[in-house]
Amino acid sequence: MIKYALQCDRGHGFEAWFRDSTAFDSQAAAGEVICPTCSSTSVRKSVMAPRIGKAKTASSAARRVANGQAADAEGAFEETTAVAKPSPDQVQLRSQLLELRSAIEASCDHVGSAFAAEARKIHYGESAPRGIYGETSRDEAQALADEGIEVAQIPWVPRGDA
Ligand SMILES: [Zn+2]
What we know:
47% of the residues lie in helices and 14% in strands. By secondary structure, the chain is an alpha+beta fold. The chain has three domains: 2-45, no CATH class; 53-84, no CATH class; 88-146, no CATH class. The chain starts with a strand and ends in a 16-residue tail after the last helix. Bound molecules: zinc ion (ZN).
């Protein structure tokens, strides 16, 4: 007995057993080999080699990725790309942070790197009380908090597409 991978003229793939290599030819010519999906009798042996080769490449690439080794195969690249795609949760968080950023930009003054100094001036009544935003170091933010000045640290999401 011999097993052949077959394909009908509409592209359905299936497998069938034959007595020997000539049995397929005679049965196919007699219209006895029938596609189980569409009942077509126009059936030929499908070419297996390219598909098998591709599957082997993909699995070996995946194995290299799993081992944490460098892989240059196309399959490995696709895997890395898939991992880097943001999840729906991340997309939602990003849009919320962008909204927050827009709200802050609309209602607060941008003071840039002078943030800590300006926050102190406002706190001690040397500047007009208002909302400000800018950049400061972690140490300075902690120092401001120690002085009783409320500072919120917000992930500043860059605009444009992710
Ligand atoms: Zn078919």
